[in-house]
Design a protein that fits this description.
Layout (H helix, E strand, L loop, with lengths): L5 H10 L7 H13 L2 H12 L5 E2 L6 E2 L5 H4 L7 E5 L2 H8 L7 E4 L17 H10 L5 E5 L4 H16 L3 E4 L15 H9 L2 E2 L1
Parallel strand pairs: 3-4, 3-5, 5-6
Antiparallel strand pairs: 1-2, 6-7
Helix pairs in contact: 1-2
The protein binds zinc ion.
Organism: Candidatus Uhrbacteria bacterium CG_4_9_14_0_2_um_filter_41_50
Keywords: DNA damage, DNA recombination, DNA repair, Metal-binding, Zinc, Zinc-finger
Function: May play a role in DNA repair. It seems to be involved in an RecBC-independent recombinational process of DNA repair. It may act with RecF and RecO.
Length: about 200
């Protein structure tokens, strides 16, 4: 890499840690930041620092500013359906479809033992506890992406959850195989939710 003053070098190194950002893109971003006026650059820096205020909801494990997130606190939402997602960001994708009005649970990833993602490293124990302590949950939607790891996770979870006497469903086909929920359009994902099938 070319030689740059330390602050530029450090900013390139920091931005390169973001997904999809290689050294060349990072370099472009840093020069864009240098072209900003001081005030705009401060707004940018403060936005990153303020992420420190984000914590994990103690009920569903999504990102939240409060110990319990707005969705978990919302008494208008149904407590009889629980939608289990891989990552916190999947919740905003599903919320954008405007078709789901139950509660959520973030599993923390998909099962992938080779990469160290096992029920023990994910939120398995917490999910079982949630179901045991909330008998009003009748249906658990396993809203994982239809790829190998997503399907493996659905199979594993549906067996465990059925043992607890709850119905499990998964998203209807319509999501392209291997497609990530994150990139599904709202209409397709909404249809997949409404047309969910029992596992
Ligand atoms: Zn929550």
């Amino acid at each position: 890499m070319r030689k740059f003053p330390a602050p530029i070098h450090n900013a390139i190194a920091a931005l390169s840690r973001l997904p999809g950002v290689g050294p060349k893109t990072a370099l472009r971003y840093v020069f864009a930041l240098l072209r900003m006026n001081k005030q705009d650059r401060e707004i940018f820096a403060r936005a990153v620092i303020n992420l420190e205020n984000i914590t994990e909801c103690s009920v569903c494990f999504t990102h939240s500013e409060d110990p319990v997130c707005a969705i978990c606190k919302d008494s208008q939402r149904s407590n009889s359906v629980l939608c289990v997602v891989s990552e916190s960001r999947d919740i905003s994708t599903i919320e954008a479809t405007n078709t789901y009005h139950g509660k959520y649970f973030v599993f923390g990833g998909t099962l992938n033992p080779i990469e160290g993602a096992t029920p023990e490293t994910l939120n398995m124990r917490e999910l079982v506890e949630r179901l045991k302590s909330r008998p009003e949950i009748k249906e658990v939607i396993l809203a994982f992406s239809p790829d190998v790891h997503g399907e493996t996770t659905i199979m594993f979870l549906s067996r465990k959850i059925k043992q607890l006497g709850r119905k499990t469903t998964k998203l209807a086909r319509g999501l392209p195989i291997g497609a990530d929920i994150e990139y599904a359009d709202e209409v397709t994902l909404g249809d997949a939710l409404l047309g969910r099938r029992e596992t």
